[in-house]
Design goal:
The structure is a single chain. β1 (about 150) and β2 (about 155) form a beta hairpin. The protein is globular. The strands form three sheets. The chain has a four-stranded antiparallel beta sheet. The protein has a three-stranded antiparallel beta sheet with strand order 7-9-8. Strands 1-2 form a two-stranded antiparallel ribbon. With about 350 residues, the protein is of the alpha+beta class. Helix content is about 45%, strand content about 10%. It has helices spanning about 5-20, 25-30, 40-60, 65-75, 85-100, 105-110, 120-125, 140-145, 170-190, 205-220, 280-290, 310-315, 325-335, and strands at about 150, 155, 245, 255-260, 265-270, 275-280, 295-300, 340-345, 350-355.
Length: about 350
Amino acid sequence: MTYKEFILSYRNLIASYWERISLKILYWKNSYQWPQGIYLTEAIAQRDKLEAALQNDLAMKGFITKKVFDDVMQWGFGRPSTNSDEEIQKATKKAFEYLKQEQIVNAALALNRLPGIGISRASKILALSDQSELAIYDSRAAHGMSDLVQNGQKLIPIPPGRIIRGDPLSKEDFCQAFEKYIWVLRFLRDCAQTNKKLCKHFKKVSDLEIAFFAKSRKMLKSPTNYQPPSHIKGAVKLDEGDCYWTLSIGKRAKPFWAYVSEDGIKILTGPEGRTKLFLTNSTIESCLRHFSKAGWFLLGNQIDAVKPNSLGEYFKKILKKSPKFASHFAAIFVTQGRLTCRYGTRNIIELKVVA
């Protein structure tokens, strides 16, 4: 399907949607923060600096260097990639060759084939190279337009995120959705250009993405049922960044990293994230179903004293993994709102599946 064919099919739907949101969209854009605490003017300046670096790499080399690639990952996720220089060079060279031909799906797929690079990360590299015509496609921005529906179905699927569960699609499906997402935003930009009050504020496709991202954060905030220990409250970032804190009492909570992708979750712990565990979506869902009717159950993540019927025991006996990963698993899904927790006496932590 081409852009013209897509718009021919959905013009009335998207135009009607624009009429509904046009009075609020500038307010949403002005509320934008990223990274958290960095407001619109400075946030856009940071994005523009990354755009200039990406464009310079492409002009001078025809690919993106690892330094610039990782600068984007650090900006978006608080952590550089684990990809090698050679991997990044080959993937980005191919991706931007496709992009020159307006093959958005193939460009995204070329980056998605890199280990650890899902659609959110891939779209950041592509979108920040040309904010006039492209936009970041992540859980927040897509969730911000989740009310664009036809016959009760979202027009644009939502990628998985830390706070937003997202839709269960394959990498290929998300790459195709990324292209349609870009087409919707381009059409909305054209709508904005006919509005005298909005035209100067929405000259770029990225201006729409920024607005929808901010809209989502107003609609859906981080769950408040996970209250980390007081000594780390200032450092915890319950948002799209990848850093979490384990569920622990006192000063034993430790940071770790987790990448939420279309296929599951990759957990990295210990110094420099050297200890790794990957849990598929089916494994995650089976675990949550197992405890869904248990009421409150123990975390029980002590390696040398695994408690009966605890999450730690499930990891040891069913998943054949170290019980210590139960704490990381619990922290992720308490943050996402699928588990709730409470702290008891004698350093006991209890969990419950949220219906």
